[in-house]
Amino acid sequence: MLIAAIMAMGALPSCKNSKYKRIFTRPDTLCIDSANFLRRDTSNGRCVTVYIHAEYPTPITGKLSANIAAWIRDKLGKGTPADTMSAANIVRYYGNARYNCYTSGSSMPPHSYYKADCRVEGNRKNYVSLKFTLAECAQGAHCITSVSGITFRKSDGTPFGWNMIKDTTSKDFRELMREGVRSYISKTLGEKYVSDENFRSLLACEPEPGLSGENPLKHFPTPKTAPYLSQNGMTFVFQPYEIAPLSLGAPKFTIPFHDIESHMTKDALKLLKKAKTN
């Protein structure tokens, strides 16, 4: 029995080089490795920079790690490299593809900047979440930054997003969105509190169908991007231009679990279940 147990342990993938050595769940052992890619060209009047940082599961041993890996690859670009087990190979494959796209196409701008960052944002007993941030500039225009995230259930790799919320149309939930954005704007502007009048003047969102002319603070919109679980709450993100001018970036805020739990579905609440204590 002892020999069999030792052999079974030896058969498990090693997390020796993993940044997160303790992310573990059966039947999938999740090891997260990180890798960087940087390629720059400043010759012939060209100024092209491509940078990618990714925290990527390696090796891929089950549905959880496979789903995470597929999500990251989808965010980084089209196609699939022959070797999907190496974080270094992943960033090199998509980094070179992006760089070649910028430098070989005659219609592509010669002055371009691409920065992609994918990392673990939350890691608890029942779930792991990732955040993907993309900053892209072309021809000296304003740099557009987008943020998205996703949560995976550790037991089977099931992804979670808007399916964590029972009713996105409820008044209480919309109020959470409103105050979350207000808090973000307050911090961004360095003000203790943003009045309703100033808040309304800063909003650039389109009214929902059938609500034209209504006070946007009363019928506050929800983000187009799905929420994800951070370490201590649920994070929501409005993309640039979606609700506020570009100068305010991408409004992002995290609602603590004790404030959002009443709006979460049963399956989502199970993700927050703590380990049993003796």
What does this structure look like?
This protein has 278 residues and is α+β, with helices and mostly antiparallel strands. 28% of the residues lie in helices and 25% in strands. The chain contains seven helices and nine strands; from the N terminus they run H-E-E-H-H-E-E-E-E-H-H-E-E-E-H-H. The chain starts with a helix and ends in an 8-residue tail after the last helix.
Features:
flat, six-stranded mixed sheet, 25% strand, disordered N terminus, alpha+beta, three-stranded antiparallel sheet, 278 residues, 7 helices
Mind sketching the topology for me?
Blueprint: H1 2-11, E1 32-41, E2 47-57, H2 63-76, H3 87-104, E3 111-123, E4 127-138, E5 144-153, E6 159-160, H4 171-189, H5 196-202, E7 228-229, E8 233-237, E9 252-256, H6 257-260, H7 266-270
Short synopsis of the structure:
The chain is α+β, with helices and mostly antiparallel strands and 278 residues long.
Q: Kindly provide the radius of gyration, computed on alpha-carbon positions and rounded to a whole number of angstroms.
A: 22 Å
Order of helices and strands: HEEHHEEEEHHEEEHH
User: Helical content, roughly?
Assistant: 25-40%
Tally of helical segments: 7
Mean model confidence by pLDDT = 84
Neighbour order of strands in the largest sheet: 1-2-3-4-5-6
Q: What does the overall shape look like?
A: flat
Structural class: alpha+beta
Cα(first) to Cα(last) distance is 27 Å
Largest sheet: 6 strands, mixed
Low-confidence stretches: 1-13
Portion in beta strands? 25-35%
Number of DSSP-assigned strands: 9
